[in-house]
């Protein structure tokens, strides 16, 4: 998935469709991250969350991965480069830096993969950051027939749009939670947004037995 073609318009498109809801989802657990010092940030788009994260955690340094040069340029403008190392690379093939990460961030990123590639992504990230907290924002299908039907229609439309504009190969939303659990993480905090269409989650490593 390469967002170069839509990078200059991404924020405007997001606000047109969802208003500030995606931002609220990304920022929801930001107060819980105080004290983080080393972050692996995956596909944060135009860097709005990254900028807020750096402001909230003055000691933090981040490695930021995105395969879109256009999105990386947007993120640099928003968050700067003083405490961030930017990598224009696909996390599926990139060599993740050897670092003592205490935080992983992936907002609306895991939904870009089919089950096989998602398993690889989670395995690679958990291998690079086995003791880190993992902050996730994702779309989800709400419970209840009347909410689930329009949600599925909207999610299907989004996949079709990003397939055409970015080359996204995933075709359906995959539940990321079983993959996180198998990798040794447990859900610590969760919040639902937009009547169940989105969720903010903070995962933590399972205690060592």
Query: Looking at CATH, which topology would you report?
Result: Rossmann fold
Global shape:
globular
Relevant CATH superfamily:
Vaccinia Virus protein VP39
The CATH architecture designation is 3-Layer(aba) Sandwich
Task: Give unreliable regions as ranges.
Answer: none
Mean pLDDT level: 92
Largest sheet: 7 strands, mixed
Secondary structure topology:
Layout: H1 10-18, H2 21-27, E1 38-42, H3 48-56, E2 61-66, H4 69-79, E3 84-88, E4 103-107, H5 115-128, E5 133-139, H6 145-166, H7 177-182, E6 185-193, E7 198-205
Parallel strand pairs: 1-2, 1-4, 2-3, 4-5
Antiparallel strand pairs: 5-7, 6-7
Written description of the protein model:
With 209 residues, this protein is an alpha/beta fold. The protein has one domain: Vaccinia Virus protein VP39 (Rossmann fold, 3-Layer(aba) Sandwich), CATH 3.40.50. Helix content is 37%, strand content 22%. It contains 7 helices and 7 strands. Strands 3-2-1-4-5-7-6 form a 7-stranded mixed β-sheet. The protein is globular, with a radius of gyration of 16 Å. The N and C termini lie far apart (39 Å). The model has no long low-confidence stretch (mean pLDDT 92).
What's the short version?
With 209 residues, the protein is an alpha/beta fold.
Kindly list the characteristics that best describe this protein.
about 210 residues; seven-stranded mixed sheet; 7 strands
